[in-house]
Inverse folding.
């Protein structure tokens, strides 16, 4: 668990440093789109069949790290420093609270009543469709041609899907992690596409949320090619069987 959390924080910090010089001419939306990924919506459906709930446990460490940075650095970035960022926002946000609650239940081996468990399970099942509906609403207001015909979109997505995952892979390789499940989970989380929150946070805290939505779609489409390549490369470098 410790290495999963440490690795997650290192990946996030590395991305923040990278966008400061790789996207000097990019907008704040570009930087947010590169730093934050769609780990929960894309990562969970991949990790669960491979590693079961143990894998989700490790993935939750990445979700915690991402949540902390989204509600601190992310808000500061999109609001251009105008929005007050507090420690409470970092620790008491929906993503972090949910992950910590699940962690406590897992560690204490608490079995929830079936009616509560099934209720949460149904809520989890609709999270991905709701995210897609929200994204579709944003896209309905924009010109779809701009997704594929604007050249600078491809540089941002290249940084998101290839360059930052390669550096993140190096960070994972440098850590003394022996647990192959942790290595695989970090490898998957490391190469997931742009977060849906790129559009949602942009609308809330100031920014071109339509542009953010276009980046999400482009990154999600190209991730169908980049993710298998990056995961295969990670398995080879990290010697994951």
């Amino acid at each position: 668990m410790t290495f999963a959390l440490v690795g997650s924080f290192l990946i996030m910090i590395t991305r923040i440093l990278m966008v400061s010089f790789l996207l000097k001419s990019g907008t704040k939306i570009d930087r947010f789109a590169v730093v934050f990924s769609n780990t929960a919506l894309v990562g969970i459906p991949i990790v669960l069949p491979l590693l079961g709930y143990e894998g989700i446990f490790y993935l939750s460490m990445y979700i915690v790290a991402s949540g902390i940075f989204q509600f601190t650095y992310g808000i500061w970035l999109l609001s251009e420093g105008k929005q007050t960022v507090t420690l409470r926002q970092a620790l008491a946000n929906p993503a972090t609270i949910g992950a910590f609650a699940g962690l406590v239940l897992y560690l204490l081996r608490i079995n929830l009543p079936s009616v509560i468990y099934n209720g949460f399970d149904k809520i989890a099942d609709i999270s991905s469709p709701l995210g897609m509906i929200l994204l579709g609403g944003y896209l309905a207001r924009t010109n779809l041609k701009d997704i594929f015909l604007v050249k600078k979109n491809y540089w941002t997505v290249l940084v998101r899907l290839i360059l930052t995952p390669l550096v993140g892979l190096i960070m994972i390789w440098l850590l003394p992690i022996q647990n192959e499940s942790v290595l695989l989970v970090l490898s998957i989380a490391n190469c997931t596409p742009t977060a849906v929150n790129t559009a949602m946070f942009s609308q809330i805290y100031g920014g071109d949320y339509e542009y953010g939505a276009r980046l999400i779609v482009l990154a999600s489409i190209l991730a169908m090619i980049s993710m298998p390549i990056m995961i295969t490369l990670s398995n080879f470098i990290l010697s994951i069987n």
Q: What stands out?
A: The chain has eleven helices and no strands. The chain has a mean pLDDT of 86.
